[in-house]
Amino acid sequence: MRKRLLISIFSLLTLNSFSQKNSYSFTIDLVNVKDDKVQVQMAAPAIKQDEIIYYIPKIVPGTYSIDDFGRFIEDFAAFDKKGNPLPVEKINLNGWKIKNAKSLNTVSYKVNDTFDDRDSTSKKVFEPTGSNIQADTDFVINTHCFIGYFDGMKQVPYKLTINHSPELYGSTAMEDANKSTTVDEFSTNTYNTLVDNPLMYCRPDTASIMVKDSKVLISVYSPNKKVSALFLADNFNKLLQATAKYLGGSLPVKKYAFILYLDDKVGVSGSNGALEHSYSSVYYMQEGDPKALAQNFTDVAAHEFLHIITPLSIHSEEIQYFDFNAPKMSKHLWLYEGSTEYNAHISQERYGLISREDLLNVLTQKVTLSRQFFNDTVPFTVMSANVLDKYADQFINVYQKGALISACLDIKLRQLSAGKYGLINLIFDLSKKYGKDKPFKDDELFDVIGQLTYPEIKQFLLTYVSGNTPLPLEEIFALAGIDFKASVLTGDSTFTFGSVRFLPNKVNGRPVVIDVSALNDFGHQMGYRVNDTIMSINGVEVKPFSLQGRINALFKTAKVGDILSIGVHRKNDAGKDEDITLSAPMVRVPAKKLNQFIIMPNPTSEQLVVRNSWLDANN
After folding, report:
1. Which residue, 135, 346, 422, 541, is most buried by CB atoms nearer than 10 A?
2. Where are the alpha helices (H) located in 417-537, listed in sequence order?
3. Based on the number of CB atoms within 10 Å of its own CB, is 93 exposed (0-12), middle (13-18) or buried (19 or more)?
4. How far is 196 from 174, CA to CA, in rounded Å?
5. How far does CA 181 lie from the centroid of its chain?
6. How much is the pLDDT for 3?
């Protein structure tokens, strides 16, 4: 123990020559890795007070989830110039109070990775937000997992040095100032900028795509070499070129990095997906069939890539001055996530990657999911501001109703302007007014949009985004010669589960009955109750997030009159837990298609102008 302490102190003393009193200087050691932990050392900027708190983030932008990354920090210590330890008190999961701080010279600690967090009692970190440490193989470095900040000192410059073996290459949107094959050096002007730039170190597998004057990097870690960066680039190129056309012919960034980690096992969070940044995005997916993965990657990346507009160029003060440990959320997730999701689909339709019917089918799915699983009367601005707590279970609606809000805005803008101005034009105008370094005030955005466009648009936002009125889909889509019908009989019949609404439990993923107001006769015969947890179907356990698949499989082989038995866990009238079985003979009911968007065959000239402006790239 004493020997290790002496070695640590010697290492810290060697940082003295690098200490810059007006900046942080961090070193991450990817060479001497032990027990999947890496050593981090920091030469501190000048501290002017007697005590100071060092923070690792509780939450980071784009996640909308409290993750407490300080949980993964060990052996935190602080030292003066002579290598003498300073008193340190851990004040919470993410903060360390350092005393005699005016004497502080260096800080040292170890970082454990989130990918291997197998503790059944801990909250799992979504992998694209987390960290991976595989010695000599792969390191996923979301910088907020490794590097923190002193209270009140996020605006101080950062220098980051990463030591690594020569076999590994670091992929990032940042520029390496050191040409060595074993040492990389990066500099940023603030902590927020550093956190906005993830890295991945592995044996190099990269490809580049030029989109006019912008260089787009694709970097892949595939443990069994099933998928290559070049293969993904070949499949992804059309989307990038279409996106550039949608944005006016070029990209608003000169360099962008897609960082893709593929796993040959299911991750601890149980999820796949991505986290966006201003100049890059990190992806976590299962290694598998290359063609299927390429399509999955393209679908997800189409959304993440378009975050180069929102919130990079358009964002509120809550994002510009993001508080990593006491966050205040913006009211405008409809803009950051909703418009991004919408633009990811409309851009593909306008430039021939998907058909009009494909786009309308996407919108159908979003209406169905939004109305089936989420509260349509919660004002979207209220949900956004409270997405970390009260309305955490409504967050996924930003990709459903949030996108529909943007579709309605796009059509309404084109109708008011006789086809000359749409949502993308508004986004361009907002970008010009604000931009990367100038945030807007949350409460002023609708006034500004009204000034840039039309009073009717401000009223739309007040009524349907900050108000509790459901979107007027029939009215808005009719402006573009599109009929919206909540239900259309197909002439066929299908088995029914009872017209009951479910939602996965946030803790264990099991389906829970949330609404029985629309039960049909079969549903009443089954006897569902709100808060019933579905445990089994016909004696077979329903695993988390698998209900719809089990229902689909059941309907393929069922016969009229077969007994459907559903095991549920519920509280009885006395408030006690009990497990019971609900059952009834299966029946067929008229088949319906829900939430259909149907192109009118004979639109008016005004409707045709709006429709062509909306869906045709040549207008």
Report:
1. 346
2. 423-433, 445-452, 455-464, 473-478, 521-526
3. middle
4. 10
5. 33
6. 35
The predicted pLDDT at position 50 comes to 97
Burial tier of 212 (Cβ tally within 10 Å: 0-12, 13-18, 19+): exposed
For 186, the token pair is: 């990066």
Contacts 24+ apart (CB under 8 A), 516-525: 520/496, 520/589, 521/587, 522/496, 522/497, 522/498, 522/584, 522/586, 522/587, 522/589, 523/496, 523/497, 523/498, 523/499, 524/498, 525/584
Residue-range domains of the chain with CATH = 2-201 (2.60.40.3650), 205-302 (1.10.390.10), 309-472 (1.10.390.10), 497-586 (2.30.42.10)
Taking the C-alpha atoms of residue 107 and residue 43, their distance in angstroms, rounded to an integer, is: 7
* Tokens coding 496: 């029914």
Model confidence pLDDT, tens digit, residues 109-137: 999 999 999 888 899 999 999 999 999 99
User: Distance between CA atoms of 460 and 604, rounded to whole angstroms?
Assistant: 24
Please tell me the predicted confidence (pLDDT) of residue 398.
Answer: 96
Three-class DSSP category at 384 = helix
Give the separation between CA 483 and CA 153, rounded to whole angstroms: 55
The DSSP secondary-structure symbol of 81 reads: T
Q: DSSP letters along 257-305, please?
A: EEEEEEESS--TT---EEEE-SSEEEEEEE---HHHHHHHHHHHHHHHH
Dist CA 74 CA 108 (whole Å)? 9
Cβ-contact 233, 256 below 8 angstroms: no
Structure tokens at 133: 């440490």
- Please report the pLDDT score of residue 586 as a whole number: 96
* 49 contacts 101 by C-beta, under 8 angstroms: yes
* Stretches in the chain below the pLDDT threshold 70: 1-21, 506-507, 619
How many CB atoms lie under 10 A from the CB of residue 225?
11
Amino acid at 273: G
Q: How many residues are present in the chain?
A: 619
Task: Count CA atoms closer than 13 A to 145's CA, side-chain side.
Answer: 27
